[in-house]
Amino acid sequence: MKKINSFYICILAFSCALAFSSFVRNSQEKGQFVLPYKQAGLTEQQAAAHLISRFTYGAKSGDIDNVLKTGLEKWLAQQLEGNLEDTDLDSKLSNFDAINLTNTQVENLYPRNAQLVRFAIKDGAIHKDSVNKANGKEYRSAIASYMKEKGYRPQQDLYRQFINQKILRAAYTNNQLKELMTDFWFNHFNVSLSKNQCAAYIPAYERDVIRPNVFGRFETLVLSTAKSPAMLMYLDNFSSSGNNVSMEEPGSEMVMGTMQPAKTRNKKAQIAMQKVQANKQKKGKQGLNENYAREVMELHTLGVDGGYTQSDVTQAARILTGWTIAPMGDNGYGAPMKKLMERVGDNNLSKRGFVHEGDFLFVPNRHDNAAKTVLGKKFPAGGGYEEGVELLKMLAHHNSAAKFISKKIAVRFVSDNPPQSLIDKMAKTFLSTDGDIKKVLITMATAPEFWSTDALREKTKSPFELAISSVRALDAKINQPYQLYAWINKMGQQMYYYQAPTGFPDKGQYWINTGSLLSRMNFGLALASQRIPGITFNLAAMNNNHEPESAEAALNIYSKLFMPERKLEATIARLKPMLNDPNLESNVAKAAEQSTPTMQMNTMANEDANIMDDGAEKIKKGKKAIANGTPGQKAGTNTMLSQVVGVIIGSPEFQRK
Amino acid sequence: MTSRRGFIKAGGLALFGIGLGGIPSFLADAVAGTTTPGLFKKKKIMVCIFQRGAMDGLMAVTPFTDQYLKAARPGLFMTAAQGGKNKPLIDLDGKFGLHPSMSAFEPMFREKRMAIVHGIGSPNNTRSHFDAQDYMESGTPFNKGTASGWLNRAVGLLGHDAATPLQAVSLTSSLPRSFYGDNSAVAIKNLADFNIQLKGNQAGANMASKSFEDLYDQTSSGLLKNTGKESFDAVKMLQKTDTKNYKPENNAVYPATALGNALKQIAQLIKMDVGMEVAFAESGGWDTHFNQGTETGIFARNVNDLSNSIMAFWTDMGRYQDEVTVMTMTEFGRTVAQNGTGGTDHGRASCNFILGNGVSGGMVHGLVNPLAKENLEDGRDLAVTTDFRAVFSEVADKHLGIHNDKVLFPDWVGKQIGVMRGV
């Protein structure tokens, strides 16, 4: 009886769910938007594959069915909300203790190398004469124990955690489009770990400035990047200052962006006055820095042909003088200033025209408050912080920005040379919705150009996308994300280290060159043969634990699994003769024999042991320990199947999306 | 953009035929022998070495008669006077002394193959490593948004189609800022890695290589197809020699350092005649805030590596010396005065070295005024008297025949200073 009851309850719940989901589907489809793939001659399956290829980091097995089940429009609508639960990812990310730190916490925990040496000297942990001297070992151990004592960590640890979490997010998040857009906007508003001074602020930049705003209004991104320590430092605006004619009070002069070393700290008024004088001199010398003002127009909003002049750049730079970084961190240069600001209090500061929001600080006495004109718009004399906001809003809503941003999004999601008609539609939406990014994306996805056969598979995966799409296709466990990073780097994308403010060029020609292409092929081979440490998967499980009966069968089955809804006849036909070579099996076997003894343990015979239950994983780890490959390489498998899958991942077809 | 696709058209390559290892014997002979007919018409090669971290030019090439310098650097100043307890500077011209750990350079200087430019630097007075390197490598000292690097633009200005995918090679793990841009440029850390690899499974690698070559030959994407072909052609070119067991010529001994290794591989590429015209390498450790030392210590070790690596390369080049010019560069110099920790801080001008048979060598070019405070930039640093672009453009012009300074260094208006001899 009990059983029957629960059976009915199940049925009931099931039909309710069905009714509900169809209700949602209808309202989504009717209420929001329709994707015109049928008009382009695509089947629903093909359309789902295209959606996945453009709006995720690559298809996982079952993804197409899921999209079909959810409904294409609803799936995209969910992706555009970007708030699907992510329990699995969250639990993986909980292993990283540095990724949620504030900039201040980062400053306190991860001193820069030069800073660390100075602290260590000051605290007597090392003698200044010992730096760079012959006995490096002793010196290093003194530094290490000093760091331990103080609880300091090496900065590399911060960047490693940051990169690791990025890889895990891309591979595992259910909110794939949000992560793609995070990548897109980060690259658009590029900052670089290669610039030491801004590097430590970059994890918080992506987390707090970029990711929450990826589907919002464009002006939010412009304003919040402008005020972020990472950008202020990367493009030097933190140091840009001008003459302020009305601000001559010594009290406020003390809180200037020019940070004094700790040793000059002194509360006495006389010395404070001297400092003011010194700062004034310094200020005069430092003066105006146009870097940010130029790039916010050229690269962030209007585009290089956006219709601004050098005079616009200079005047915009003057408007943005005084926009700087609030002192943070309890040690080092900012510390005395921070204490002083705390003593004065935010209320008193804001009475004097300061604006202190989190890590951002507007310093009125560094602000050029004469009249300016940018793009024909007049900014009258006497302005402060708000004129910068006004300027940035004007830029963010400019016609040129609408075109420039629309084109860049279309290049990212449609093709390297998107049709002008598409850009025009998107730009129109951009202007009519005050730069609503979500609406612009919908306009793009509902345009026929998005679904045209010219656009299918037209984009080349970046190295990062190739790596992530591979692990997604393999449904791999990523225990050591940094191993993937090393490969991504090798394939030509040193993530977060692109030096120029342009960000990585988003075009196939940039990614595909002689060296990087070989690395892509080698990546496929290394990954598929389980030679990349910390990346594990079970090829057999992908095919319901059936071992393909021949190489040809393997090729057929796995290329369809990896590239659903693609026309693969040519690829398969091309490879067939080689795979049908009667000597192939014996060649593979011979290859396995030639391998080093430690490697033989992982050959076909014991691939079963690789099947990913935890027990087997442990056994494998034991073997890994004796496999002594060079860093980043371990003894792998030399099976027919891994060879075939390696070739699939390295194939030209899999480089496209 | 003139395309590197020209490589495919380069008739010579067809001789390689399909399949790995099928290298015509005449080529192997050419490489091993003393004649260098090669597939590619012999081209001039410019080798650039970026010293990251900012080299103290005043210690590398010291104006040793300058009493202000002596006073500002009580613990770092070195003398050219013989007979002291320490090794003296190598007196170049009665005014400048070469650091004794760079003695390898002395014969080149005396033979007038090496020139030094002192007081070289950027008109932008930033003292940030990042910014200064960025400006020097983009070649636009006041514009961060320049997408391309100057060496990439140089490749575009060579005036002929790229006949090879290896026209511009950086011996670094990722592309340096100097190489950013639309022209073909590639970063290769290790030549031996430039192949299809499957560690411990050579047979598997060979099979995969064949599969890939077929697949890329077949694909409908022009970009992937052409680049795929280039890649496999390049692999075959590099397989002509055993890169792992390379034997330098003329008893050259490369230091076992990153720079030594990079230059050794550049030498291999040159001898393999792969059509390389621009090469790039890096040297690190120049940011000597602490205890930089004098005739021994970290600075001495650095310049020792720099000079020995370059001289090993030059010696190894032997019969190729006429084709090669080597130029060093660094983002800025260091303070005239030593700091409180036995080192020097970020300054302005530094010096650089140019080596080649077309160099106007044997002299220290540029201008170094007495280092009295009033002559210093911001009262503390050796003033920049020569814009780096004047020197870079001259070397590119005279050695590689690149005349278009408007493209190479937009915004720069200036004159060459005569570091190269007229052709």
Automatic annotation (TrEMBL), chain A:
Keywords noted in UniProt: Signal
Name of the protein this chain belongs to: DUF1800 domain-containing protein
InterPro entries, per database record: DUF1800 (IPR014917)
Signal peptide range: 1-19
Pfam family, one: DUF1800
Lineage per the UniProt record: Bacteria, Pseudomonadati, Bacteroidota, Sphingobacteriia, Sphingobacteriales
Source superkingdom: Bacteria
TrEMBL record, chain B:
A Pfam family assignment: DUF1501
InterPro entries named among the record's database cross-references: DUF1501, TAT_signal
Domain of life: Bacteria
UniProt cross-references to PANTHER family, sorted A to Z: BLL7424 PROTEIN, DUF1501 DOMAIN-CONTAINING PROTEIN
Descriptive protein name: DUF1501 domain-containing protein
Species the sequence originates in: Pedobacter polaris
Taxonomic placement: Bacteria, Pseudomonadati, Bacteroidota, Sphingobacteriia, Sphingobacteriales
